[in-house]
Amino acid sequence: MPLLTLLGTSDVHAHIHPWNYFRGKEAEVGLAKISTLVKQERARQSGQVILIDNGDTFQGNPLATYFGRINAQAPHPVVLTMAAMGYDAMIPGNHDYNYGAAQLETWRQCLPFPLICANVRDSQGQTCFLPYLIKEIEGIRVAILGLTTPRIDIWERPEFIQGLQFEEIIPAAQALLPQLQAEAVDVLIASVHSGPERLPAEANSAISWRSQRSTWVDQPSLEGENMILALAQAVPEIDVILCGHTHQAVPEMWVDNVLITQPHFWGSQLSRVRLHLEKEQGRWQIQHKAADLISVTGVPADPEILALTQRHHHQTLAYLEREIGQTLETIPAGWQARFHHGGLAGLINQIQIEAVQAAGVAVDLSLACIYTDQGHLQAGPITLRDAYRVTVYENILCVLEISGEILRAALEQNATYFRQLHPQHLPSDPSEVLAPSSRPYQWDIYAGIDYTLDLTQPEGKRVQHLMHQGQLVDDSDHFRLVLNSYRAHGGGGFPMFRQGSLCWQSADDLRDYLVRYIQTHSPLYPTTFVQSNFQLIPDLYDYYLERSASASASPL
Q: Considering the chain, what is the average pLDDT of its residues?
């Protein structure tokens, strides 16, 4: 019985070496480790292995920025790595457009394998990539259909995707099905840069992905962004879906007879699908299929890949060590930055307000997104690495005119970051106050308003005492709000912002403004950024601050 193996990576975000550029330390991630696993699988099954990357590959860490913006003429280390690893195909993710469609096309031309995607078209209505790829392995015809999240049309800078059309996932797949069936393929794989639209309550447990989907919770996302469950139901002819985008590990999930899997991000896991086939009445038929995730933890990095990209790695390290200023005291991250309006949120809000005012645009409010829990600024010198830790993504600034109703709805959505809490039964670990589906980039802290979030109340009823300049905010009030472009376009589960009117957007991204601010305002005095304009009920900051005084609290 022939065995085919499908190997998949997704959301690698330019991680090649086992190194965390944001934290400046070794990490169990990267394509160099993945390469070792791929070689092991190929050694077991010569010629019967297909390797696919599912997108968000060229963006996402300082190495990506350095070779995507600063030294973009040099051979890209990700291109060199993927070529050496012998990928069969790649699907473009939304972040692969962050340096522009023209730059992505340059990289595509350097790759010795195709980018495939059926739902991206040019201004003439022609697909920008091969819609699918057919590989014949020992007489077995395998079709790989590529699809990506269509919400690139909302998130990306218009000038970066000018003339491009992003079709919805399901209609694009259905339209190609007759053509694929006419190709007499034996196996149909859909590689889709989109994730499950619903998650089990304990999504990090492998067994939970076999639970009843009626008990699952919605994944905060835009309409059409994550469509994997719906795709499997709408196109049951698909045998396997390799998905991505959400960074959520999915070892093995089934929708009827469609097998679905997704590896964890940054090259920390490799998806493996095994397909056992037999010939029946002259056609190959899948008799058994199964998926699992292989961790790179403890796996040695492939010395071939390390040597190939060593120069690029060291160039990136040298770039990150550039000093841009100083701070007199540490500006903390983690729960210390999230449970009150501390120095980190205050710094970001101050930078955003000054950037807008310098452009001659009036603004009333600012929204600071706390992207990660590693974005602290240690007392002393501040380097470019620190700036990357604070602003992980290449988001520009936008000013929206919004109503009081939109503001309140956004704050209610913001409050869903937390579980419903009981003041007398708070967990010892601050991470346990978060809702199961929460992601770090879904928490915002505002400047320009005073507000209370009562976390003892159910979702939708948590915003209290919402005031602007001493007056209660009415639904009919209007404000100008500065925020990052991802949030302005509804990203992270905030579709209400799409109802606002865009008044202005920047040419530079937030990290550029952060670096310039630090350079011109050094040394920083963190206490000047602390505000007292919002309150959580119960007071999580004081509670965990008191606990950490006697024992080290777990970081979020």
A: 94
- Helix intervals (H) in 45-99: 62-65, 77-85
**Cis omega (within 30 of 0) for bond into 523:** yes
pLDDT tens per residue across span 388-443: 999 988 899 999 999 999 999 999 999 999 999 999 889 988 889 999 888 888 99
And the tokens for 326?
């100083």
Within a 13 Å sphere around the CA of 521, how many CA atoms are in the beta-carbon half? 16
CA–CA separation, 5 vs 49, rounded Å?
5
Q: Which helix (H) or strand (E) holds 106?
A: helix 101-110
The whole-number average pLDDT for the span 46-75 is 93
Q: In the CATH hierarchy, which top-level class contains the domain 322-550?
A: alpha beta
Pairing mode of beta strands 269-280, 380-383: unpaired
In whole angstroms, give the CA distance from residue 146 to residue 58.
17
Same fold yes or no, 3-317 and 322-550: no
Residue 555 predicted with pLDDT over 60: no
**135-145 mean pLDDT:** 96
Among 114, 54, 117, smallest CA distance to 267 is for 54
Q: Per-residue pLDDT tens for 143-156?
A: 999 999 999 999 89
pLDDT average, residue stretch 501-528: 96
**Secondary structure (DSSP) of 138-169:** TTEEEEEEEEE-TTHHHHS-GGGSTT-EE--H
For residues 556 and 430, the answer to whether their CB atoms sit within 8 Å is: yes
Q: Are strands 3-9 and 49-53 parallel, antiparallel or unpaired?
A: parallel
**Domain residue spans of the chain:** 3-317, 322-550
User: What is the spatial distance between Cα 172 and Cα 147, in angstroms, rounded to a whole number?
Assistant: 8
- CATH homologous superfamily for the domain 3-317: Metallo-dependent phosphatases (3.60.21.10)
Chain-centroid distance of CA 62 in Å reads: 15
Owner of token pair 């400046």: 24
> 254-261: long-range contacts (C-beta < 8 A, 24 or more apart)?
254/210, 255/229, 256/232, 258/232, 259/289, 259/290, 259/291, 260/196, 260/228, 260/232, 260/291, 261/8, 261/291, 261/292, 261/293
Within its chain, how far is the Cα of 127 from the centroid?
25
Instruction: Render pLDDT for 221-255 as a digit per residue (tens, 0 to 9).
Output: 889 999 999 999 999 999 999 999 999 999 999 99
The pTM (predicted TM-score) of the whole model is: 0.90
Q: How far is CA 154 from the centre of its chain?
A: 15
Question: Within a 10 A sphere around the Cβ of 446, how many other Cβ atoms?
Answer: 24
Among 7-21, 143-157, 530-544, which stretch is predicted with the lowest mean pLDDT? 530-544
- pLDDT band with cut points at 50, 70 and 90 for residue 4: very high
